[in-house]
Amino acid sequence: MYEREEERLSELKSHLEQQTLPLDEADQMILAGITKAKADRSKQKRRRKRVTWMVAMAAILLLTFVTSIRVSTAFANTIAAIPGMEPFVALIQHDKGLQAIFNEDYYQEIGSSQTVGDVTMTIDGVILDETGMNVYYTIESSKKMKTASVNTIEITNSRPMPEAGISYGGMSANDVFSYQEIMELTFPKRNVFSDLNFTIEAEMDIDEKMVAFLIPFEVPEQTKPSKPYVLNEITELDGQHFTIDEVVDSPLRVAVQVTFDPNNTKKILSFEDMRLVDERGEVWSKIANGVTAFGNEKGKTTHTFFLQSNYFSTPKKLYLQINKAQAIKREQAFVEVNTDTKELLTFPDGPQLQLVDADRNGIELSLSVKDFNHDPFTAAMDAQGKEISISSFSLYGEGDATHWSPAFETTSYTNPIRLELNAYPTYIEGDVKVEVK
Q: What span, in angstroms and rounded, lies between the C-alpha atoms of 331 and 418?
């Protein structure tokens, strides 16, 4: 039943699974997603300019990737009974929090649509809470669509939308009459809308023609309140200290706010296995797709990490556990490259990093680690301290190596350039267990 959806998903060999959103810098580095190494950069620039204004401060576009999934019959039947939701089963099954949302009837059906020529866009339904919004939609045509993909998509309200991380599927339909996607908005601060009337503005590239939609819709019911647990628990992992400030449980996700000790000798880039565990040993792990964290700005010490939600569960005891994190020596948390002389000047200890190619449009790096599917860079800066926007990013595996290719928005900069690291395969380990409730 879901062969086509799983086939389309499996075509995405790489994904931005650990992407963090730096709020102060991301408006200078809107990611156009994972592109082919030889993608048309001018087209990426045009798209980036159209989406820059979509959020108050920042937006990161992420491509979602879901591996082959065994779909439980009971859950598949629950979703299939909701109009328009049957094709989304494989996309939802990987997240325990989303499963609970549908089992608890927190998903809200919409059904608003608009037809432009032969093409119809339908807003199937919405999940809204204080941390964000998931919008499920369908594109269908009376004629078979040879190619169809999302160009830009935006959601508006009568009041200014809060700053948000945005993710949506970037894959294209191929010789189909319809396909389904999810748009996810993630808010860095909890938000409650006083007006539940919204409008979707979308541009689609369908058979090399631009089709624009403007669809108003109303969310029937207000959000359920989040459950905050203030902890202020100081802990450490392999000598690197940090404070678990609070854990906030919401229907769509759990937000864990962490403040790192500025005196640490290493910069913690991400937690590999942060999870919630109840008294029976049931685990709620990291969100696998979309925006997984906020923070990681240069000089900032407080980050927010997202886990799958256990909002609709009622454990007697709940613990936050961490055993492994990506971490790098603080003085080595960047890569420095001269794109004119094609030299890799500075790089971290650890797995071998090589400069494959460079010009003023971008660079290609090879890392001697297989399948390290992370976007490693939050920002680039030239020798005079000028920000260089990263307009697109390509990631692919070749043998036992992973290739990274960031492309730059401008060629007007002074070498050498410095790229701050957001991910790197060097690790610290330990045993952190904090009681949440």
A: 13
**What are the chain's domains?**
3-218 (2.60.40.1640)
Residue 379 contacts residue 390 (beta carbons within 8 Å) = yes
Residue 165: the pLDDT is 84
CA dist., res. 143 & res. 336, Å (int): 50
Q: Is 88's pLDDT higher than 80?
A: no
- CA dist., res. 9 & res. 195, Å (int): 35
Question: What is the spatial distance between Cα 387 and Cα 393, in angstroms, rounded to a whole number?
Answer: 17
**Structure tokens given for 243:** 């404070």
Six token digits for residue 433:
């267990």
Please give the pLDDT value at position 250.
97
Closest CA to 103 of 130, 70, 81: 81
Dist CA 206 CA 183 (whole Å): 18
Spatial distance between the Cα atoms of 271 and 26, rounded to a whole number of angstroms = 21
Q: How far, in Å, CA of 219 to CA of 123, rounded?
A: 11
Residue type (1 letter), 34: I
Q: Say if residues 65 and 15 touch (Cβ distance below 8 Å).
A: yes
Model pLDDT for residues 374-407, shown as the tens digit of each residue: 889 878 999 999 999 998 888 889 889 999 999 9
- Tell me the pLDDT of the chain averaged across its residues: 81
Q: Are the C-beta atoms of residues 34 and 393 closer than 8 Å to each other?
A: yes
- Give pLDDT, residue 146: 87
- What is the pTM for the complete model shown? 0.78
State how far the Cα of 131 lies from the Cα of 188, in Å rounded to an integer: 7
Looking at residue 25, its amino acid is: E
Q: Which of 398, 397, 394 is nearest to 170 (CA)?
A: 394
Q: What is the mean pLDDT of residues 296-307?
A: 79
